[in-house]
Amino acid sequence: METLFRSDVALGLPLYREVKHKLMEALRDGEWKPGETIPAEKRLCERFGVSVGTLRKAVDELTAENILIRHQGRGTFVASHSQDRYMFGFFHICPKVGHKEYPTVEFISLEKEKADGDSARRLGIGKGTRVVRIINRLSLGGKAAIIDDILLPERYFGGMTADQVRERHTTLYQLYQDEFGVAVLRTEERLEACGANEQIAGLLGIDEGTPLLHIVRRAMTFRDEVVELRHSYVITSDYEYYAGEEAMRVGE
Amino acid sequence: METLFRSDVALGLPLYREVKHKLMEALRDGEWKPGETIPAEKRLCERFGVSVGTLRKAVDELTAENILIRHQGRGTFVASHSQDRYMFGFFHICPKVGHKEYPTVEFISLEKEKADGDSARRLGIGKGTRVVRIINRLSLGGKAAIIDDILLPERYFGGMTADQVRERHTTLYQLYQDEFGVAVLRTEERLEACGANEQIAGLLGIDEGTPLLHIVRRAMTFRDEVVELRHSYVITSDYEYYAGEEAMRVGE
DNA sequence: CAGTGGTCTAGACCACATT
DNA sequence: ATGTGGTCTAGACCACTGT
């Protein structure tokens, strides 16, 4: 196939990366929504003027990043947030003995605040920018085990109300997706140990100073823009944090 | 190309997975040692009787798992443990502010013991099996920050001596590789918060009960056999654990 | 220069899902 | 039967590395 010009943004990039970039743009622009199929490979090849192999290499990378999901015989789908996906890819707490279970979520509060310096830096916004702050209590095995302290930039989540958060029967990431059109694509987590302060101890019904796992999670959407900053405080007497590939482990 | 029979272990597996399996076997058998190049793609295609595309797909997976490393123009190399690789892929503690630094390691003790029930289970060996136990103290920024309590099955590390561990100027994984022919291919980590007990507090020079990050790491070699069980106790006032893909993050 | 891996093509056939 | 993704081939050309 004769290649005359290769796109306006081809800075020596391999062709399949250009294609990947264009797919990302289309996804970001909402051309295909979460849960929908994208066009068949053959059609996409025509659209981008590349061969199957090249198109597949672009899609390969997007599936490896859990942005697209392929189903043989059915099509290629835009990844959608669900309870299962949350458990598999974003919730890293599991019991030391026994099987992983979904936490019971109890809404505590929703407030509008101004971001302090540290939060603003982590969110990539200016200090003092307005944010939504949500506090939840999560229970595992019937016992309060985790406090989630969540900050959301108003830019993405302006009209969020307490009722929206309280009445939902989905994960928060589904709420972001369905009500605000925000797709969480990946997260990054940093962990430390801390002693429970007065507020957390009260919410969890434990003694002040009890060792807790403190997780700082940043959730990113397209272009690596941060859309959520979450502090989780976890009682780790019966549960632990699992750092694993989860994905891969395919076969020898 | 005419395919008559496809290997003795072809249980409906794709051809490229068979090839991957055979490459793994050759690596496990030491046909190519860490740091060496494996034969050029063309030669491997002849050896396995497959086309380049198929061979490449097998090698792609092995490079994604950090078992092989490709260098354009130079060849494909068997991954070898080095200080840099340890920092990049296995040492997940970094300062809350500033750049990642390599820890100073101080040898505390090496003993031969019998594995208790919990350790034996995690190592995949029988209770009471003999193991080597190493304790190290790691310092960051000049201050003691981590205690490593390491268990190694005697099956792999029988003749290990305190001098071997004390006198080395490499990472432990390099020692496993160079002196015992054991290749650590991947690790799995579980984290919890705990209060420092008397022994750990003493070794770290902190108060008993200080909240610490407790990391339980299992290191695996070929066939997912566990070759190391490591308990790390980390002071997280200035440092934190980073859970990240590290790899990927390739490009939009 | 020769040799290596990196990209790309064009097309065949297979396996699976749906109609 | 049709359409989807999954595998595989055979070969071309490019980019990088070392001699």
From TrEMBL, chains A, B:
* Keyword Secreted recorded: no
Asked whether the keyword tRNA-binding is assigned, the reply is no
Gene Ontology terms for molecular function: DNA binding; DNA-binding transcription factor activity
- Origin superkingdom: Bacteria
Q: Where would I find the HTH gntR-type domain in this sequence? A: 13-81
Protein's GO biological process: negative regulation of DNA-templated transcription
- Keywords of this protein's UniProt record, alphabetized? DNA-binding, Transcription, Transcription regulation
What is the name of the protein in this document?
GntR family transcriptional regulator
Q: Which organism is it from?
A: Massilia horti
